[in-house]
Write a structure and sequence with these properties.
Keywords: Signal. With 405 residues, this protein is α+β, with helices and mostly antiparallel strands. The protein has 10 helices and 19 strands. The chain is globular, with a radius of gyration of 19 Å.
Length: 405
């Protein structure tokens, strides 16, 4: 899913490097060996025995019980919890489409995101015309030459462990985006935070929060084809299980200015999720064995050096089953003189890659510096927001307020 153009662990034995630069920063390689779970040939998707999701606890009948505070928040908006879990979430009545930052509620519906449902989810492509992309050519650099997306090596848990796929429900149906496990400064080694795009969690000025938001790290770990995944066991598609967002935060700029084609919110199109496992007790970082720092210095494009973008493109010619990456030196994209300049790189990834992290090397360590937001109709480049002080404040509030939950 994208916006304006194509809005598309604790270390053990000291052996793990989450991101490594190869050859004078000419290429970025996401490298990680997962902390227990997946192997080269198989993936153990059982991160633990205790059920824990969105603050959920075991019910008397062995099912998942939604905590009282979440029930109360739903009831405030006239939503019956049982009806919601039985399919009421499909009701997109304007009065029940929660939109304000304080309104996010995402109760776990265990078993909802089964492999077949994941396979049927579509990219929610947001594209802009060439004319729209050229709105402020006085500041924008010339459009970059296309860079052909390169398939990431499998298994993903060894080559790109922090990267995963995000699933959610919208009025148009089940949708997909990409996301990245990031470090939690207040809870080192135990992060439950995921970075993605704002339009992957909230519809912007025309709507509200999406529903049933789930993060699946190292989705389709072995990069198998659709035919090979027919009848696949859940752990083959989700080696580390499903991680439900029990809280989400995106910028006011996206909530107020985001639109079906990105709009003025594109420059603020970023979000942070706090997640908990549908099954299990360990943190996301401990389970996956990987998490990345975020660089909020917002360097100018000319000073940023080479960047790499990772994600799961789902619109043709891709099908969302495999992870891809693009490496390029960024230029500037300005949608309006009144908006912050965005980064832009050449890349042929399509919708579904939205929200996927962009990485650059800082002092010898690769860090997340942006995320895929928008791209053109011809899928020749991607653009992402600069992450400055507003993005840092959103991240720090998420870490301080929800990180320890």
């Amino acid at each position: 899913m994208r916006s304006p153009s194509t809005p598309c662990a604790a270390h053990r034995g000291g052996r793990r490097r989450l991101l490594a630069a190869a050859g004078l920063v000419a290429a970025l390689a996401l490298t990680a060996t997962a902390c227990g779970g997946a192997t080269d040939d198989t993936a153990d998707g059982d991160p633990g025995a205790a059920a824990s999701a969105s603050g959920a606890a075991d019910g008397a009948d062995g099912g998942v019980a939604i905590p009282g505070d979440i029930k109360d928040r739903l009831k405030e908006h006239g939503i019956d919890v049982d009806a919601w879990k039985d399919g009421g979430w499909k009701d997109w009545d304007r009065d029940k489409w929660l939109s304000e930052a304080k309104d996010f509620v995402n109760p776990v519906i265990e078993g909802l995101w089964e492999p077949e449902r994941m396979l049927s989810a579509q990219e929610a492509d947001k594209t802009m015309s060439v004319q729209e992309a050229a709105a402020d050519q006085g500041v924008s650099d010339p459009a970059p030459a296309p860079v052909e997306a390169e398939a990431e090596r499998t298994p993903y848990h060894r080559n790109a462990a922090p990267v995963g796929k995000i699933f959610f429900d919208s009025p148009e149906g089940s949708m997909v985006c990409s996301g990245t496990v990031i470090k939690d400064v207040n809870h080192p080694g135990r992060s439950n935070l995921v970075w993605t795009a704002g339009h992957c969690v909230h519809a912007g000025g025309g709507g509200g929060w999406y529903r049933n938001i789930v993060f699946v790290p190292a989705y389709n770990d072995l990069g198998r084809s659709e035919a090979e995944l027919t009848g696949a066991a859940p752990q083959e598609i989700a080696p580390y299980g499903n991680w439900w967002a029990d809280w989400a935060a995106t910028s006011n700029g996206w909530i107020e200015g985001g639109s079906a084609s990105g709009g003025s919110g594109a420059a603020y199109d970023y979000a942070v999720l706090h997640v908990q496992p549908e099954q299990g007790a360990k943190s996301l970082e401990e389970t996956v064995g990987a998490a990345l720092d975020v660089d909020f210095s917002a360097p100018a494009a000319a000073e940023a050096g080479q960047m790499g973008a990772w994600g799961y493109p789902a619109a043709p010619p891709y099908n969302g089953l495999r992870m891809f990456k693009c490496l390029d030196a960024p230029g500037r994209l300005s949608l309006s003189p009144s908006l912050p300049t965005m980064y832009r790189i050449g890349c042929t990834m399509t919708g579904g890659s939205s929200g996927g992290g962009w990485f650059r090397v800082v002092d010898g360590e690769a860090k997340l510096v942006s995320n895929t937001s928008i791209g053109p109709l011809d899928n020749t480049w991607l653009a992402g927001p600069q992450l400055g002080q507003d993005a840092r404040a959103l991240y720090e509030n998420m870490s301080e307020t929800y990180g320890g939950q």
